[in-house]
Amino acid sequence: MSSQTHVTRPNSYGTYYFRMRVPKELVEEVGSKEIKKSLRTKDRQEAHSKASLERMAAEQLFEAARRSITYDKASPTHITKEALTQIV
What we know:
Number of helices: 3
Strand content: 5-15%
Distance between the termini: 48 Å
Number of domains: 1
Helix content: 40-55%
Radius of gyration: 19 Å
């Protein structure tokens, strides 16, 4: 696991945020360049605990996006004309 916490400094109200960049190859599938979410706490220690849970959720999202991309590439709409000729 990465040692990065992905916790950003509190906003003007003192609330911490989770922030993580989306890998370039997944931006189109995920729909944004980064994930940013309020951790709904003003306590630094609690923010770090919540951020580790958010990081796991983000990693699961990235894995699902990777599987979706792999599935799309394997779908029949991506079969070349030559491959189709060989099948028939």
